[in-house]
Each structure stands twice: as structure tokens, then as C-alpha cells.
Amino acid sequence: MGLPRKRRDDRAAHVEDGDVRYRAGRNILEVSSLGLASLALTATAAAAQDRPATPAQQAPVEEAEEGGEIVVQATRTGRRVQDEPIRVEALDRGEIEEKIAMVPGNIAMLVSETPGLRVQVTSPALGAANVRVQGLKGRYTQILADGLPLYGGQTPSIGLLQIPPTDLGQVEIIKGAASALYGPSALGGVVNLVSRRPSPVQQGELLLNATSRGGQDVTAYNSGPLNDALAYSLTGGFNRQRRQDIDGDGWANLAGYDRWTIRPRLFWEGASGAKAYLTVGALAEQRRGGTLPGRMVPDGSPFAQDQRSRRFDAGLTAQTPIDGVGTLYLRASGVTQAHRHTFGDVIENDRHDTVLTEASLGGGTGGTTWLAGAAYQVDSYRSRTLPAFDYTYRVPALFVQAEQKLSTDLTLAGSARIDGHSEYGTRVSPRVSALFRPGPFTVRASLGRGSYAPTPFIEEVEAAGLSRIVPLRGLRAETADTASIDFGYARGAIEASLTLSGSNIDHAVQLRDVSATRAELVNADGVTRTRGAELLLRYRLNAITFTGSYVHTDAREPNPDGIGRRLVPLTPRDTAGLTAVWEKHDRGRIGLEAYYTGRQSLEDNPYRSRSRPYVELGVMGELKLGKVSLFLNAENLLDVRQTRYDPLLLPRRAPDGAWTVDAWGPLDGRTINGGVRFRFGAE
Fold this sequence. Notes:
Layout: E1 14-17, E2 20-23, E3 29-30, H1 36-39, E4 61-63, E5 70-72, E6 79-80, E7 89-91, H2 93-100, H3 108-112, E8 117-123, E9 128-133, E10 141-145, E11 168-175, H4 179-182, E12 189-195, E13 203-211, E14 215-225, E15 230-241, E16 256-269, E17 275-290, E18 304-322, E19 326-343, E20 346-365, E21 368-383, E22 391-405, E23 410-421, E24 425-436, E25 441-452, H5 459-462, E26 478-491, E27 494-506, E28 509-513, E29 519-523, E30 527-541, E31 544-558, E32 565-567, E33 574-584, E34 588-597, E35 614-625, E36 628-635, E37 671-681
Parallel strand pairs: 10-12
Antiparallel strand pairs: 1-2, 3-7, 4-5, 5-6, 7-11, 8-9, 11-12, 13-14, 13-37, 14-15, 15-16, 16-17, 17-18, 18-19, 19-20, 20-21, 21-22, 22-23, 23-24, 24-25, 25-26, 26-27, 27-30, 28-29, 30-31, 31-32, 31-33, 33-34, 34-35, 35-36, 36-37
């Protein structure tokens, strides 16, 4: 659905990757981030495979004990995942397959059900959305593919809806300032999408899906060995959605689109332990929103809101051992994205480009591991329509990271990065973390600082474009301090965790009205403060897993007019979820879910200043018949829709050019989808 909710962390998972399966005792896997600066991925909680992992994955994960403990071969240290000081929540392949049966076309639902994450719609006309981490705006979240910025240095909001989950082996999430690991684009956190690794035998799958709202999805995946050292995977898909005006006001509540994607990957392993991974990708999409044919906005004119997207990318990671020193790691990627935006009678043509090169060296002795390296990244934006917004950011960087195991139960980790930004000067981003594991309890604490280089593309701009925005002038870099402490307990069939987090952002960029037809971007006059708590409880009863979750968020920022403070719009103070899932690995699964979203402060909404709370109910089922799976999923059974309470359209156009209020609740209502998945090749 792409709506704010808690992740359903639901079972002792059977995970499949190629022809390998394992049973993990936890569904939230905690993965080390040691070495993230060099590979953006130290470890993945994927199944142990006959073919060793590629540099993006760095090392396979093994089932170390019958209890389901996972050993991560991070920089060849062989450390258990439970012993890592920085917590990275991971969605495994089993969780991904479940979400594919719900929304096969994009990863919005996949990340939206993770504790502390919220998928926020930024453009009701086109359905664009981004990911908020622990209450921070979506522009602060860096989305990576195998540790590479293949979706751009700052992923466009529409990009979240253009990433298919078909070939994902795992999704990893770091919360809080991760600039020490990834640079200025990761002020709020990181979502790293890890690709599936080919198995030693030929395998493939085909998925067909249709929805009650006029959507269709076709995705295909194939992988296998080419020779003893080389393997491949190939993913492709076609997704379409019919534009729909559900409430009958002439404006599309559900944008229409046609999208093609293709991504081949190559995996190589040398006899000496050297490894390499190469990927290329292409996307073409036409998205249509705004008024339907023959219909008008309140000023009596039609208003089309369309977007054409073209994206091409390539990425490479490699590693080779150096005797007596450690391991040398190399990363490189490039992406170009061209867009043609239509906002009524205004057409904006632009291009976003990102290039990254990086080299690092890592090693360790005894209880100490270390890594150091250098990176150079270029992000540029060019608009044929509005060249006053053009920019090119060049950012050379040096980074270092170390981890020390002080005792059996205590581990410390620290990292730092120096970025020499061509526009906003030199920035230092440190982060320290600690892990304490007394018996069945786990305590993790983390402090970090990061920075963010402002661009014109904040959430408010997604809905209306740049034509009414004053060109940027005199903006300062945004900086943030974040802290978190996590308490965990796991014994037998019971798991529990409590996370407390906080952040302070200085100079946060806001949108301020200048006149009835113009708006500008300014730095907030004060600190944006966010405090939050996440509670998760899980109980397993044979094949049934019950999960309850609750999140409280208190986020306040200075008013854009400079007078006083306000609650951050579109940030619910309270959300909660309750799920029950029955699963048998070779037979299928049945799941029930209920999610509560509390009141949200609203901005520039003439109909109300606070949203209504609402509850969403869902049910899904999957039946496995050998290599064929049948699935059926129903979302939002109560048919909750924002437009049942207020119009989506504004009575007059906003100063920034928007014709709609913000989306604070579901826009598509009850949706049912179903389909079939075929698997080919050896099991």
C-alpha cells in the first residue's frame, strides 16, 4: 500500500536464496556494519552458499549453532552477528518473498513495515513517496544497491516506487546519522538493498500479479553459473497501473504508469580469493496523474501532472587479499536519470548524475579490526527549463573505522569521515557505538554526527516542481546529532526490544511562502528536535508467530515564519501494529494484520489542522504446490480513505504551485491483489 505502518517481524524464518535454505531463530537479524565505509555492506544475513559472496556481500553467512546463531565473515573476522556493536536490521529473503506477494512492483511496503521507518507520500498526484527514518525527513535517507548509490546521491521520491524487489536477497537498514559511513547523503540513515546471489545450479522464476485497482505486474528472474569462476543473474519486469479517480472529483487518486526494468549482474571469484561484482541497469517509465480527460481543477482549467523517467546505471565492486597487510577493496558506480515533468502548462526537463569512486584497505589482529580509505563522489543536476537551480557537488573524502573487543561481553566501535564539499566546505562526521551482552540481554548504544548538503528537492517540491520556487541563495549545510540506545531480550519463544532515539538538526531547510504565487527555501531559525521510542514484542507458538509493536514520536521544528515552534507535519505521534502469521515452509502461509496510525499535524490544509487516526486491516495467504505458488492479498479491508473525510483538491492553488493537500492517510482504499509464481530449475 505504500502507507505508514510498522514492519511485520513475524517468524522464525525459512529463507531461500538460490537452492539454499536455513532456519534463523530471529527474523530481525542484526548485521555488522564494520567495513561499511569501504563496501557499504560488511555482511549480509544470507544463507551460506557453495559460491562465496561477492565484494558487496563480502562474505557468506553461516548457521553456526542449532539455536540459529548467525556467523558473519566480516572482513574475515568470523564474528557472530549478535556480537556486532552497530545494529543493522535486516529483512531476509523470506520476508522479501512475503512482501513480493503483496506489492510485486516496488519496495515501498517492504520498508514501510520496519520499526522506526515510515513511507510518506510526497506527491498525491503521482504517488511519489520517500522513507523517513525515526521521524526525520525522507531526503536524509540514503538508498543504496549492494552498497552503491545506483539510484543517485539523493534518491528522487519517485525512485522508491521504481525499484523492484524480485532480485533482492536482503534489505539492511541503519538508523541514525550514517554520514561517517556514507557521507553527506546519509544524515538520517541508510537502506541498503542486497541482491540475490546465484546458486551453483541454474534457477529462475516468473511472477504474474493483478490488482482490483487495475494494476498488473510481470517480473522474471534467472541465475546460474557460467563457468567455475563466473556466475550471473538477470532480472526484468513490466509493471502497469490504470489511472483512477476513486472519489469522483476529476482528480486521479491513483496515478497511472507503464514501467520497464532490466538488470543483469556478473559475479566473479578468483583462485587467490579475489572477487568482483558488476551490474548494469536500465529503467523507462511514464507516469500520469492530475485531472482526468474533460475534468477541471477549481479554477476551471485542466491540470495534467505527468512524469517520464529514464535511468541508466552501472556499478562495480572488487576485493583482493594482500599478503601480510589485509584486503584491498575497490568500488565504483555511475548513474544518470533524465526526467520530463509536466505541471499543467509548465514542462520541466532535467537530468541527475552521480559518480562514485572509492578505495580502502582493511585488516585486523586479535580483537581489533580496522579499515581506512578514500572516496570521491560527484553529484550534479542540470535543468533545461530552470537552469538557475543547476548545481555540481564534488566531494573528496577520507574515512577510518576501528572495532575493539574489550571482553567477552563488551565491544566498542568508532568511525570518522572527513568530506571536503565543494559548496559547503569541510565536514567531519564521527560515530561511536558500544555493545554489551550479559546473558540473554543485549544493550547497544550509538552516538553520531552528520551533515547534509541542501538541494532544491525537499518533500514539498515533489508535488509542484520548481517553477514557483525562488532559486537557492545563502543556504547553510544541515547538521545533525543523533543518539540511540537499544535494549533487547531473547529467550525461547519470547523476544522483546525497546529502542530510545533522539536527534537535533541545525539549519534544517524549510519551504516558506513569499507571495501568493512564489515560495522559497530557507534554513530554519532554530533546532529541529525529534525524540522517539520503539517497542517490539514477539511470541512464537509452534508454527504461529504473534508480533506486537508500538512507536511514539515527538518531532518539533521552528515555524517557517520564524515565530515559535510547531509539531513536524505528517509525523504521527503514535503508531501500533499487531500481526499473527502461520507458516509452513513447503505448504504456504496465512497472515492477519492490524495497524493503527495516530493523529498527525497538518500544514497548509484548509480543511483541518490535524488528521484523523485510522486503523488498517489486512489478510494474505499463499499456497505452495511444488514449484508453483498461488497468492492472494487484501489490504485496507475497512476501506479507509482520506477523501472520505475531506477533499484532496485545494480550493485554490498553493503559492508553491500544488493543487492538493498533503496525503495523511490512504488514497487508494481497499485493494485486493492475487497472482501466481512459477519456479524453474533445480531446487
